Task: structure prediction
Amino acid sequence: MRLNAADEVFATRLKTLVPEDVLRTPEARYAQDPRGRRAGQIGALALPRDVHQVSTLVKAAAEARVPVLPYGGGTGLVGGQVAWDGPAPLVISLERMSAIRGVYPTENVLVAEAGAVLDDIQAAAEAVDRLFPLSLASEGSCRIGGNLATNAGGVNVLRYGNTRDLCLGLEAVLPNGEIWNGLTRLRKDNTGYDLRNLLVGSEGTLGIITAAAVKLSPVPAGQGTAMIVVSSAAAALELLALARSIVGDGVSAFELIHRQGLEFLTEVLPDVRQPFAEPPEWCVLIELGLGAGLDPGQMLEQLFEQAVAQDLALDGVISQSQAQRQELWTVREHIPEANRLIGSIASHDISVPISLIPEFVAEAGKRIAANGQFRINAFGHAGDGNLHYNIFPPKGQSRDAFKPMAADLTRIVHDLVHEMDGSISAEHGIGRLKAKDLERYGDPTKLAAMRAIKTALDPAGIMNPGAVMRV
Amino acid sequence: MRLNAADEVFATRLKTLVPEDVLRTPEARYAQDPRGRRAGQIGALALPRDVHQVSTLVKAAAEARVPVLPYGGGTGLVGGQVAWDGPAPLVISLERMSAIRGVYPTENVLVAEAGAVLDDIQAAAEAVDRLFPLSLASEGSCRIGGNLATNAGGVNVLRYGNTRDLCLGLEAVLPNGEIWNGLTRLRKDNTGYDLRNLLVGSEGTLGIITAAAVKLSPVPAGQGTAMIVVSSAAAALELLALARSIVGDGVSAFELIHRQGLEFLTEVLPDVRQPFAEPPEWCVLIELGLGAGLDPGQMLEQLFEQAVAQDLALDGVISQSQAQRQELWTVREHIPEANRLIGSIASHDISVPISLIPEFVAEAGKRIAANGQFRINAFGHAGDGNLHYNIFPPKGQSRDAFKPMAADLTRIVHDLVHEMDGSISAEHGIGRLKAKDLERYGDPTKLAAMRAIKTALDPAGIMNPGAVMRV
Result:
């Protein structure tokens, strides 16, 4: 079915339906890709103040067959928020719907509008002595609606789950403009199909999330962080198992870091203080969050001693203060920025069954090396089986010369992931950048079911067309 | 669209498609409701050995427009597995697909076929020193496919979540007979719509789950259980908050018990040893599961002392041995059986926002009392906001005389739940018994979306017709 651009005629029609200040002159920044690859189009821009205005806008778009692009913080990495082809869409930014509607400490629940910035939600939880554990690099600007629409991951998934695991209820506008009030604070509700999880991770293609009830957790009484040099990638996994045998669920984060990442830091971000004089081949950042009566530092020492005794650990630094904890995290958190400054030829957000990580790293390295002398930075959320696997030119060379090889390199990585029953998009989503990959690697029965669901809920195909599935 | 019964002609056709031993003479036990309310119909019975046979059966049913009833352990309480109207279905029992396909302790993952009995899965996890935390009354006979199809709850939801939270991947046969291979062991996979969670909780109306990858957890190093007399239902919630402030995520179960339940035990199950001489108005069963280095008994004592100091607790028993722990659980676990022996007029599986439990209990009691002198047993998973709220005749009177009032009493309870933004089915599902209630209380936008999804995936309406949504 053909869609129409959000043109002057459509904008004029919208003006009769919503208050004047809801419609804005389209601004280029709403059509920008944060990695600066491709610019999108924007036909009309609306900044609604409430769910009823969102509903009115979507109904008008459905009637006029105008594409709708829901816009959160604009931080997505796969082009889900950038309409680079098709008719110019109506961009609906949720930024003015940013209220924290309620905080319920007894229930460990918080209700926020979709435009609430992630770190505002974290702060609102902290204010009542609770933790909202979703934590990721863009938390200062990403918005919870976008986190939900993309089922964002981050560094605490190991313990607290993905964004979908933190969501209890949703309010949303479906593609026909109807409002779904599913904003429940319930922990248990088995009344019909799980529309919530269908919208979470659908990247704006099945509706616009306008508010959410999310789970809070107790704040751990004590936290401790260590960076431990491990003897191999396999040893890292054994270290994780050992840590869990000691502290159970208390392992909050377990991040794998490769020598290449530390060398990149030295090269382009020399101010970031590194804990080891010589960058080790592999190290892990481990964080414990424990209840009262336990000393995280002591537990980490115990873990380290046992790990050394079992030849898993070779060296290590255990934080002795909040400042030292932050310093260790700073190392981990600056690796993506270092990657950006070096400039990757191809980057990948993959996952494999956790036990296959060492095999994946070894085999992928071999296959990439067969195609040239590249530098590889594999790092990330090893406890979730999720690695960011990025390929860079040899030192001193520009990535531009290698860009023609990017697609082939990605193919090599994704083929291997597929052979290992892994995922070609562990936490970033499909967006527009990976829609072709999903067609190639996705289960055909699932893809057919997805298309049937999309057509059933959005027969005209107005919601974020081109994202997840190509039109 | 009209459906056809699974008659002789259809059975003869099936015989040409699957090995002889897959088809059985229909047996009445596959059409029984465990609460003995209504008998179902069964036209043909198949016991497939693998997913390909399930696929063949469903394809044949789709072609002939014959209804299909997926059958697990048959323990569901809402008639989801009992076809009491419409043409007689083909019942597909998963009982011969009961293999544990793999256990991956490093990954904390187990892969089982849908027919695996829950306690066999628990045992397989235990054998590798892991915990599969799903635990409910029927665990000796319910099967994981049914647990998933109904998103079963149980006593450990507080800490580990509902069945859907324990599921990583699924293999299933969709209503068109196609096999979906989504049996991933991944912790993170953002490749398209969440078909897994759509099937989980859809009660066999969108497909047949044939296998699942589920999450395992570390076994807590130490467990401790206490039964604590609380000064009110509100005090119970404050006690839970206090417990969490002390042990964080370590609270594994938090069950509320009313005096009525204990009196029922005395009346019909006098052999069950009760911890208190006089049954208290409200008590809670609390269980801690803690990592190494902590003494659960000591933590419970600390909790109890603080609770007494804050006037939350009046009396209590802390288990000093495994046998005492079991004894306390025996009290809780026999309440449903005592209810059954007494015979309820109407029973309800409801949830409300946790902080509203005291208000719900008070207000519901008032409204029911306005209709007669009933006995009410409200008990259950208070930590999840989930109560089983059952209404009984006055002592010495038979429920039969009150049965005509059952629908009105249910209406009173469900209306109040609805006013409080609660759920009329917290953990048992909709099945056939609550399909009308879902129509009454469900969000209209959600119901319309559910119908659209059902029609998209099952255009002929063969999968468990009449369950969840009336035909």
Chain A touches chain B through 95 residues (CB under 8 Å). The longest strand of chain A covers residues 222-230. Chain A has 14 helices and 18 strands. The mean pLDDT of chain A is 96.
